[in-house]
Amino acid sequence: MTSYTDRSSSSDAVDAPRRQLLATAALLGVAPSLLSACASAATTATSAAVGARRRLGPLEVFPVGLGCQWRQGTAPGVVVDSYSSAFDRPSAIRLIHEAVDRGVTLIDTAEAYGPFLSEEIVGEALQGRRDRVVLETKFGFDIDPVSGQRRPGRLNSRPEHIRAVVEAQLKRLRTDRIDVLIQHRVDPQVPIEEVVGTLKDLIRAGKLRHYGLSEPGLQTVRRAHAEHPMAVIQNEYSMLWRGPEAAVLPLCEELGIGFVCWSPLGMGFLAGGVQADSRFKTAPVTDFRAISPRFAPEVLPANMALVDLVRDWAQRKSATPSQVALAWLLSRKPWIVPIPGTTNAAHLHQNLGAAELRFTPAERAELDAALGAIRIQGDRLPPAVALMSGVEAPPKP
């Protein structure tokens, strides 16, 4: 059984059990309604075991995905994330196996993560499990295909480059198709119509199934969607950063586009992994929080009010802080899917448990009011990174 369906085939999936029921009733000489009643308890149990699914545009996935953003550590065989956590490659593969075996159906990565290393690990881990997941990866940076070094231009979404990147990604991921290919950042030098036109050709060739954009400008989304329907937008979104609520989420709702949240736990902040006096490494590998203004020593103590709020709600709901933060995202819209990353299997299990946590309408209103009263200090991203968000592609000639 596959873990996702396109809307075009969803009616077949619904009709198949009904056809089987009618055929079985005819064979046994009993009324279909009797068989249906007898089977209802088993069907309910099965549905509960499978768990809820969410729509991302034309795709259907488990409510919580897995983000795989890893790079080579300073020692041979060591794999690190962007927040000072480390494990080895076999452990990374086991983590992905555990996620898929527990029902995760959205696996997210990118060529830039490593570069290349994360895709290689994901490709190896999904052998024998590939058809059980929606595989999502990204392109868009100007990365040397041999050395992995980023070239001076930083971004590159020229059609010929996209085609070359996809061929390399398919090899690293050990697959014949990418389910969702996302432009990592909008290229200010290439009209989005050229980008999407290239992606549409790759979809026709069977190398891609769907596409999306990450941190795009609003008009670029409209232009891209008009060229070919978009499956997802992937932006940062969490209790720590609620920027998408102003315009991006309404646009997704209008156009029927799914929304994937990167950094849904605020880079570990919402999970309780940061203290008021925390300081972050800059060597030998830089922790991204060391250069993020909202984690600066002068503002971190004030921002801890959000951590305290999440911790209090975790106690109230008999849950973990990460579960509260993820469940809050899931409560916003039925087409929102967070992709928390981790190097820890226990944390993975906690994150997946968020799919079962619910807020009553009164609890939701109370929590939203408390969140609204907290003012987060410091910009969400370093200036050079922030400049790549909300960019509009140039007009088509």
From TrEMBL:
The keyword Oxidoreductase applies. Keywords: Oxidoreductase, Signal. InterPro entries: Aldo-Keto_reductase, NAD(P)_OxRdtase_dom_sf, NADP_OxRdtase_dom, TAT_signal. One of its GO terms (molecular function) is oxidoreductase activity. Residues 85-370 form the NADP-dependent oxidoreductase domain. One of its GO terms (cellular component) is cytoplasm. Residues 1-41 form the signal peptide. Pfam families: Aldo_ket_red (PF00248). The keyword GTP-binding does not apply. This is Aldo/keto reductase. It comes from Sphaerotilus natans subsp. natans DSM 6575. The lineage of its organism: Bacteria, Pseudomonadati, Pseudomonadota, Betaproteobacteria, Burkholderiales.
